[in-house]
């Protein structure tokens, strides 16, 4: 069976565009579809490489790669939950069943429990995530991928996928599976990067490397595997059974910078020496196994407590921040932001 493009379904249409270093762990080629222009890492990553990218402790602040300083997100999740619950409380039933896919440590789910009576649950590939969310917040988080979880048909009223679609190996299958487990008329709230804003700094770095004759590769530092344009997303949503209710461009300033439209723009790229790549041993070094979960839990719980600010947990602060952020939000067609924020409804 030939591999097809996730957007336009054309078989064998992906051709190599750009070689990168995926988190300094392995080399990976960005490919581009000759038919629709969609860009994606090919060949798709296997289970083993994925587990190197997302080891149990990718929340560990002392690791070289991964999500540093995760505790900062705890406070921010309160604000996101406040506005999301206000937006979704009317269309959803009071006891709505909510699933967050890629919920990490459960901050957003816990915050949503505070503002709603929804029945929340999470899913994450990190075994530490489910340990942490259960112990800290009593939020049920299953460990695994969406495909592994095998939820029943039409089970959920609402699904959240924040910064997830760009990390899954099969985006089309992933969207179809999300559709299957949603009730008819159910909602999916999704945030995913503007692919062009991810690719342009890599291309810029590749040119610099070539000009300087360096033996290096542009660093794909966040481990994104797919790079969607607005049109790609719209087509994917529509063909996997969703209506797009709203789409907005967010983080405009960072988007403009990444796209090179601001002075000192996409110069903020990173490169990595070829000799530092292909070091699975390094990726695994210090990875926390189950017997180390307690120590990491204590460390993150301490960080969260230390960072907690009562002022920044109040609605008046949320509204003030939102007002400031409104300058950084545009309709989806603008395509100059760093991320797309989309609300979809199952047809
Ligand atoms: Zn295509």
Could you characterize the architecture of this molecule?
By secondary structure, the protein is α/β, with parallel strands linked by helices. The protein has a single domain, classed as Rossmann fold, CATH 3.40.50.150. The protein has 12 helices and 14 strands. The chain has helices spanning about 45-55, 70-90, 105-115, 125-135, 145-150, 170-180, 195-210, 230-240, 250-260, 280-285, 295-305, 315-325; strands at about 15-20, 25-35, 40, 95-100, 120-125, 140-145, 155-160, 180-195, 215-220, 225, 240-250, 270-275, 330, 340-345. The strands form 2 sheets. An 8-stranded mixed sheet has the order 6-5-4-7-8-14-11-13, sandwiched between helices. Strands 10-3-2-1-9-12 form a 6-stranded mixed sheet, covered by helices on one side. Helix 2 packs across helix 11. The mean pLDDT is about 90.
List the helices and strands and how they pair.
Layout lengths: L13 E9 L3 E8 L5 E4 L4 H7 L17 H18 L8 E5 L5 H9 L3 E6 L2 H11 L3 E3 L2 H4 L6 E7 L8 H11 E12 L1 H18 L3 E5 L5 E2 L2 H10 L2 E9 L1 H7 L12 E3 L6 H5 L8 H15 L7 H11 L3 E3 L7 E8 L1
Parallel strand pairs: 1-9, 4-5, 4-7, 5-6, 7-8
Antiparallel strand pairs: 1-2, 2-3, 3-10, 8-14, 9-12, 11-13, 11-14
Bound molecules: zinc ion.
């Amino acid at each position: 069976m030939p591999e097809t493009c996730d957007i336009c379904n054309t078989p064998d249409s992906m051709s190599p565009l750009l070689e990168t270093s995926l988190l300094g762990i392995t080399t990976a080629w960005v490919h581009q579809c000759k038919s629709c222009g969609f860009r994606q890492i090919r060949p798709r990553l296997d289970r083993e490489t994925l587990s190197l990218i997302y080891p149990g402790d990718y929340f560990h602040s002392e690791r070289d790669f991964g999500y540093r300083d995760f505790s900062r997100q705890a406070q921010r999740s309160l604000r996101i939950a406040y506005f999301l619950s206000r937006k979704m409380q009317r269309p959803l039933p009071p006891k709505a069943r909510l699933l967050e896919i890629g919920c990490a440590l459960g901050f957003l789910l816990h915050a949503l429990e505070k503002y709603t009576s929804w029945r929340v649950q999470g899913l994450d590939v990190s075994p530490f995530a489910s340990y942490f969310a259960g112990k800290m917040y009593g939020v049920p988080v299953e460990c695994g991928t969406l495909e592994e979880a095998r939820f029943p048909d039409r089970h959920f009223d609402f699904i959240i996928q924040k910064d997830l679609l760009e990390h899954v190996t099969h985006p089309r299958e992933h969207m179809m599976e999300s559709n299957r487990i949603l009730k008819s008329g159910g909602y999916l709230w999704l945030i995913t990067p503007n692919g062009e804003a991810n690719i342009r700094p890599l291309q810029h770095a590749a040119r610099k490397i070539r000009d300087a004759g360096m033996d290096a590769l542009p660093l794909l530092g966040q481990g994104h595997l797919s790079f969607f344009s607005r049109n790609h997303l719209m087509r994917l949503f529509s063909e996997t059974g969703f209506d797009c209710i709203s789409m907005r461009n967010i983080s405009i300033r960072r988007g403009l910078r990444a796209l090179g439209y601001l002075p000192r723009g996409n110069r903020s790229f990173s490169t990595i020496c070829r000799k530092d790549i292909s070091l699975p041993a390094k990726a695994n070094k210090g990875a926390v196994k189950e017997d180390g979960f307690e120590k990491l839990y204590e460390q993150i719980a301490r960080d969260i407590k230390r960072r907690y600010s009562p002022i920044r947990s109040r609605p008046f602060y949320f509204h003030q921040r939102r007002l400031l952020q409104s300058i950084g939000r545009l309709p989806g067609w603008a395509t100059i932001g760093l991320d797309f924020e989309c609300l979809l409804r199952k047809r």
